[in-house]
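Support request, please re-run this one:
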Amino acid sequence: MKTSDFYFDLPQELIAQDPLEDRASSRLLVLDRKTGAVSHQGFRDVLQALHPGDCLVINNTRVIPARLYGTKEDTGAAVEVLLLKRREASVWETLVRPGKKARPGARIVFGDGLLTGEVIDVVEEGNRLIRFSYEGIFEEILDQLGQMPLPPYITHELKDRNRYQTVYAKYDGSAAAPTAGLHFTPELLDQIREKGVRIAEVTLHVGLGTFRPVKVEDVTDHHMHSEFYQITKETADLINQTKRDGGRVICVGTTSCRTIETAADEDGTLRECSGWTDIFIYPGYRFKLMDGLITNFHLPESTLLMLVSAFAGKDHVMAAYREAVEKRYRFFSFGDAMLII
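Re-run finished. Output below.
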């Protein structure tokens, strides 16, 4: 299977640069994964597609303002640091630009000395381990100095950083938002609950691997970056009960999908657990738990498009994407949504 099999032409102007004023006013393309039939609706119509007894699985991770701008202590040269993964209390794996200015021993100053960092090692793919020094609470300093790590295809400034958070975000740790969840409002979630749909929360802290392109021609040669996930007993019990009762498990976003598919036993039973996942889902994968997926429109040749194709069939998905382009849907993080069921 070739990476180029997942290419499609996307006009630049269809990449959404700003979130809509009303989260739930996005368009919704509904794809029948068995027949390939497509219909065009509004996102609020997702309520009609859900049945009493279904379970909606959401990712409650919270994006941290992980992009920091500083200067090298010795030369004053500008340095950009993106926090990727917390290794210890004050040590983070980071992406530093320009990397040549961040050799081990280099010291970087942020916010006139409010925060300083020392590069202590170079690890996989040139990422830097940085030990930070500060007084007070790191998260509070990050809120003061950091910026939201928007994807590289978004060039507009984000005026309200909460628009790159879901309304149900709880636990700090992501370098990117689980963007399928950005369409939900508290009111829509209340309506979903009132209809008798269960809502289960999982946590997966989204890493930079979300943005990384597939650089190999053979899909099976691609290596996914690991991300931390957690599933509580309450969530495991809720999802298992849904399956026993004959309800459907519908994931909001590829991150929720990868979390439950990582944690599920071969018979589809979910258990309380936490750890790191580097699961790579592409056509040929046998889904153990997921019955439906709400997701955004993804980049050509991306691992996320491969996951969606594994669930609904590559031919169906690529045909639906061609129609989405033709109908001028908005793509990527702040774009429109797709329901596959």
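The chain has a mean pLDDT of 95. Residues 14 and 224 are 27 Å apart (CA to CA).
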